[in-house]
Amino acid sequence: YIKRVYIYIFINVFTVNPCNGQSSINNMTVKMPNQCFINGKFEDAENGKVYETINPTDGSVICKVSYASVGDVDRAVAAAKDAYYSGPWGRMNPRDRGSLLYKLADLMEEHQEELATIESIDSGAVYTLALKTHVGMSIQTFRYFAGWCDKIHGKTIPINQARPNRNLTFTRREPLGVCAIIIPWNYPLMMLAWKSAACLAAGNTLVLKPAQVTPLTALKFAELSVKAGIPKGVINILPGSGNEHKFRTKYNLTNNSGTKHRCALSNLKKVSLELGGKSPLIIFGDCDMDKAVRMGMSSVYFNKGENCIAAGRLFVEESVHDEFISRVVEELKKMKIGDPLDRSTDHGPQNHKAHLDKLLEYCEVGLKEGATLVYGGKQVERPGFFMEPTVFTNVEDHMFIAKEESFGPIMVVSRFKDGDVDGVLQRANDTEYGLASGVFTRDINKAMYVSERLDAGTVFVNTYNKTDVASPFGGFKQSGFGKDLGE
After folding, report:
1. Considering 114, 119, 274, 388, which one is annotated as catalytic?
2. Where is the Aldehyde dehydrogenase domain (predicted)?
């Protein structure tokens, strides 16, 4: 009792660098758990190891976070197995399970401003976007899948041998068991929701590893899951770099292709993968130019370009190419770069320093190969990991920046000859990825022709970045397999 009172007084006097305590940020009191979450409670890593999570706005340390060890993974998997096979979760009526997920969504909504604040300082997301998308869609995802809990059922199948003995065949859909989930750093809470909501709705238990650089909203989510009444062991959160474990029943991964191969080849498990992208966006001369400029910029700069479906390469018809570039640059000059907690900020810092360094190198390669740097390409001269929104033109098909994903605020533009629909389609599909794509045109026949031939899991027509919890999401080729969201 005395120890708890002492900590309370200490934290209220010193409101910076909180560790598993409270802090005054964004005109509110924010509580940020910082330990491993195993079997329904927070605890230090088995070996006591910790690491620092950094605020990308100024490079300061937010707090120290437990760094999970192999032993912690063992205990988390054991807890998840026990919760599935022996605990109340595995025996629970699906409708009751749905009620708990609805309650969890309600708690997330109740704490949405706190979650958005944590997301903003840990990932660099602009607060208004964090509130609407990072947190808002997470809440929608849990509510959507909570409604599916009691609607998962099998079929009755007629068979030739039914008579004279009246034989009957029917199927049951059963949970897989323990699922391992690895999520990325660009949408920390939303990716947690996309991966784990369906997993829990189906009756599985999970061991989740948040990205090492953005663990805080996942740990806050764990705290809310206890308040919602989710039984112990059902949800386990392990911050750190990750350790493999042989008992996982399913991998659900959003990451890069290298991680995919390590997961898939190490042992035989059911795997769902959402990986890289180099999504093409084709802008025809007959488009609504105002919309093409607005949506074209959003396709690249949304969430600082740290967006899996970002338009990695724009193809602009020759007759409107120069006008499009001129208008984009004009709008970029109006963009406010700054503190993501400032409501007027348009563009926040990149997620972490190593990523910023990679983006700057990406721009250097583009220049060396002969692309034209029209705007940006440099680090902003201020504390933190800020990058100027960037535009490259005259990008040829063989160039590195034409083929490789930047995952940052870099618009890569190539022109194509007027009327060469099939030619630009061939260039757009000449990529190892197939996550998303887009087309802007007023001609509905052209829109349908192009959308049918773009080799991507999602095709946006006269819009971009529109996703919904009821619509399936996923890609082809090296962009992975399996779907998130939807039935």
Report:
1. 274
2. 45-486
